[in-house]
Amino acid sequence: MNIPTERYDVVVAGGGAAGVAAAVGAARMGARTLLVERYGFLGGAATNAQVLSYCGFFTGGQADAAPVRTIGGVGWELMQSLARMGFGIDPVRSKSGNQIIMIDAEALKVALDRLVLSQPIALQFHTRLVAAHRAGDRVQAVTVADHRGLHDIEAAAFVDATGEASLSVFAGVPMRQPGGPGAHLQPASLPVRIDGVPADVVFDRALMTRLVADYNATAELPIPRADGGVVMRLPVSNDIWWMTVDLDTDGISGADLARAETRAREQSWRFLEVLRKHPGFERAHLAATGPQLGIRESRRPFSARDVNGDDGLHGRRSGEGIARASWPMEVHLAPGRQRFVPIGGEGFFDVPYAAIQAQGVANLRLGGRVIGADAEAYGSVRVMGTAFATGQAAGVSAALLADDGAQGVVSTARVRRKLLGQGAIV
Q: Are 380 and 354 found together in one domain?
């Protein structure tokens, strides 16, 4: 079947937090924008991996510090939309001591649909990116696949919001972290939703720690989080959000993902028997897992200027900033082992414009967890709250590139000015 080539000003690959924000940001600049997503819904890890909390919207990791919002623009518009739908968006303190917003996946899907469909954005679901075509230092087109077959899409500018840096890899951007066998990556998690626990049941962390220790003493598949992991009530359903399944995967190869996902489901099923020994959890059952694992890290491209651990440690400010990163540098060293390094200064650091510019490819912008970052800074910028901000900046920059033509050079000042006009915090 001969499918005609499509043409847009901006093509955004990936419909998670960064991709949605990029598409909305670009469309509001007047760019003819296409958003391509491989699933049948938007939201990224929040909806496809049951990561039912938004991190990075607020500072306030210290117990005596009032949370300060660091994310505006498209991300905060989405939160206000959820509030109008009857969902609380006030931050709550997580087990790690940091501020998060608990979310409902089904409500979020609808809110994201409404947000994207309110703009002149072309939307393609069940569509997977399979190639990029480059001439010189620019991407000319991408090839995508849906049930019709393969077809090409041309654009003046592109945004990689795929999470796994697929567009960057296809476009030949050098990788800081190439992933694959032997790579030292943060482990993935399989968050699950648990039903059947009465509303008045109080979780006893000390008891759960003892139950896990007893189980692990003889377990073939031990529970990696010794204290039972994250256990929180979800809004509306009052179900339990449980995250205790951690395991290593390269996050990109089909064979290794099959191994990891089947093993994760087996672990969640076995670990449930331990949870049922906690008083009040006797009738607990698995209500849902996501269509995929929650992948923290797979591949990371180089940018024109990667953010680094010192930026976070000192809360570094910059006149080149296009987003604020306020989540602590959360690095998962191995399954069940993680550390949090607080952000210095005012509790956030600026992500410079150069960090969303792909190294060596003039018309490719980066959003979300594929922006340029070293291992430490990556632990902060990868979260979804920050992804909304970097994604929106990537979309705005891409739209300006498309408007300026092939020889255009978009300054930081222009991007910041347009972001402020869209309500972003920079």
A: yes
C-alpha to C-alpha distance for 345 and 342, rounded to whole angstroms: 10
State residue 407's pLDDT score.
65
Identify whether residues 117 and 214 lie together within a single domain. Answer: no
The answer to whether 103 and 239 are in contact (CB under 8 A) is no
Structure tokens at 321: 């900033």
Distance CA 23, CA 18 (A): 9
In the prediction, which pLDDT does 40 show? Answer: 98
**Residue type, position 152, single letter:** D
248-265: b or e for each residue (b if 16 or more CB lie within 10 Å)? bbbbbeeeebeebbebbb
DSSP 133: E
Residue 318 — very low, low, confident or very high, per pLDDT cuts 50/70/90? very high
CA angle 151, 49, 16 (to 5 degrees): 50
pLDDT above 90 (res 351): yes
* Full-model pTM: 0.97
The answer, yes or no, to whether residue 62 has pLDDT greater than 90, is no
> Cβ–Cβ contacts within 10 Å for residue 25, how many?
32
Domain assignment of residue 363, given as a range: 6-182+298-421
Please, what is the end-to-end C-alpha distance for the chain in angstroms? 47
Task: Report yes or no: 42 and 15 within 8 Å, Cβ to Cβ.
Answer: yes
